[in-house]
Amino acid sequence: MKISELKRGQKVTIRCKHKTLLVDVDATVAGVRSEVVLLELIRHDGQIVDFTSPHVHIITIYEDGLDMPKAWTNCRIQKRTVDGKQYHALAAPKASVKVNRRKVSRILLNKPGKLKISNVPNGVDIMIHDLCVNGIGFECPVKIEEQDIRHLYIQFLDEDREEEEEIKVEARVVWKKELHGGGFFYGCRLVNAGENLGYYIAEKMREDR
Predict the structure, then answer these.
(1) Which residues are 89's β-sheet partners?
(2) Which residues are 111's β-sheet partners?
(3) Can you give the pTM of this predicted structure?
(4) Per-residue exposure over 135-147, b if at least 16 CB sit within 10 Å of its own CB, e if not
(5) What is the rounded average pLDDT of the residues 57-86?
(6) Is there a contact between 67 and 79 (Cβ–Cβ < 8 Å)?
């Protein structure tokens, strides 16, 4: 996918890296002109952000909720005036690549869980495939409609442990894939979790060594 294929109104994440510093900012596509994407001006603390430093590495990430996120590396962003209005002009030298935004260690679970969708009263039985401190992947027999995806509430019990402890997380869908045998696989970013999540993952990782 070329960056010029982005459409007006779509949201992207601009990831700025300088040495060990990493900052994500959200941006909205205002249009495309000659292979350059025009973004609504990005501000921080009321000030227009300056992306022209040669020491800052810029990555643009786009999530459509249908597939794994797409990323463009080595991007350039400059201010540009078009028809009397200022924008941040975004350009990328190469086509996008699919990326997995969960870079931290994960554990494979393959355990049943319960999914509750905001605005839907009844829970759904799911199979949780993997889990990490900021993401979760699970199989679900039903398609989650976009209007229902505000937050997903997921919980499960690990019956292999001596003391059964319920794990609860709150997530947002990043991508989904329809499975050949029926159902859907969802990759989600965690937006909230119980305090015991980190301890649980650490213990499971020690057990797997």
Answers:
(1) 38, 78
(2) 128
(3) 0.53
(4) bbbbbbeeebeee
(5) 87
(6) no
